[in-house]
Amino acid sequence: MNARLSAGLLITALLVTGCGGGGGTQTATTTPKVGLITKTETNPFFVKMKEGAQKSAQANGLELMSAAGKFDGDNASQITAIENMVAAGVKGILITPSDTKAIVPAIKKARDAGVLVIALDTPTDPQDATDALFATDNFKAGELIGQYAKAAMAGKPAKIATLDLAPGVTVGQLRHDGFLKGFGVPAGDPSVVCSQDTQGDQSKGQTAMENCLQKAPDINLVYTINEPAAMGAYTALKAKGREKDVLIVSVDGGCTGVKAVQSGQIAATSQQYPLKMAEDGVKAVADFAKTGKKASGYTDTGVTLITDKSVTGVEAKDTAFGLANCWG
C-alpha cells in the first residue's frame, strides 16, 4: 500500500508540474494552432491559399484550422470563424477579409486576446487593424499591365473600358488606380469611356462589356479586375466580331487566365502568388508561437507580368513560366 501510495503521489506531482508550465491552458505536447479564413472555399485562388497554409503548417509543426465565407462579401461568417478560432486557442489567424472595414472590430477582439492576426491578399481598412499584411502589391500589378497596354497600343489613341470589382473594395481600387498610372492617364480622363463593376465574375464581366459596347462601340482597350471578368469581356467582344481588334489586359495569374493569354484571348496578365502568401503567413505564426515575436508591416509576396507578346521597356515572363507558377 505504501509503495502504491508513493507512486501515485509521484505521478500526481508530475502531472501538476506539467500543467503548471503552460499556465493551466496547454500541456507541453499540445500542437499550436493556426487559423486560415478565406473569402470563399470554391475560388481557385483561395483553394491554392489553403494548400499553401496546410503545407506550411505541416512543415512548421502547427495544426491548421480553416473556415471561409459562404460567398464573397460574407462578413458574418468570417466574424464567427474568428470567434471560434480564438475560443479554440489559436496562436494566429490568417484572413482575407471580405469586408475590409466591418471585420475590424472582430479582429481587434482577437488581437486583444493575444492572437497574432495577419491579413493575406486584401488589407483591412485601416491596414494597421491587423498585425501584418502578406500580399501582392496590387497597385504595382495594375501598374504593370497599364505600362504594357500603353506600349502595346503603340501611340494609337485609346478608348478604354475598365471592368472593376465593386465600390469600396481596396484590392479593386488599387488595381484600377495602378492601371491608370501605368497607362499614364489620371482618374476621370476622357480616354476612359466606360467603367463598370463586375464583382470579378465572368457572367457579370460579359454583361458589363455589353453595356460598355452599347455606350462606346469604338472601345479598343479593356482593363479587367481579374481573368474571369476578362473572359466575360472576351465573350461579349467575340459576339460583336471585335475580339481581334480590342486589347484585353488583366490581373491574377490563375491557370485558366494564363491559358487565355497563351491562346491570345487576353494579351497580358499580372500574376500573383496565393500559395506563397499563405506559406509565409503560417511561418510567421510558427515563429510567434516559438519566440513571441510578432510579424509586422507589409510583406510583398511578388507579382510578375505574363505575356507571349512582350513589349519594349516592360519586364515580363512568358506563359510557360506562368503555367509553371499558376493556381487553379
TrEMBL record:
Residues annotated as domain Periplasmic binding protein: 34-293
GO molecular function, one term: carbohydrate binding
Matching Gene3D superfamilies: 3.40.50.2300
Major site of localization recorded for this protein: other
Annotated InterPro entries: Peripla_BP_I (IPR028082), SBP_2_dom (IPR025997)
Record bears the keyword Signal: yes
Signal sequence coordinates: none
Lineage top rank: taxon: Bacteria
A UniProt-annotated Pfam family: Peripla_BP_4
PROSITE patterns from the UniProt entry: PROKAR_LIPOPROTEIN (PS51257)
Localization, UniProt: Cell envelope
One annotated Gene Ontology cellular component of this protein: cell envelope
Keywords tagged on the record: Signal
PANTHER family registered for this protein in UniProt: D-ALLOSE-BINDING PERIPLASMIC PROTEIN-RELATED
Similarity-based family: Belongs to the bacterial solute-binding protein 2 family.
Protein name: Mannose-binding protein /fructose-binding protein /ribose-binding protein
Lineage: Bacteria, Bacillati, Actinomycetota, Actinomycetes, Streptosporangiales
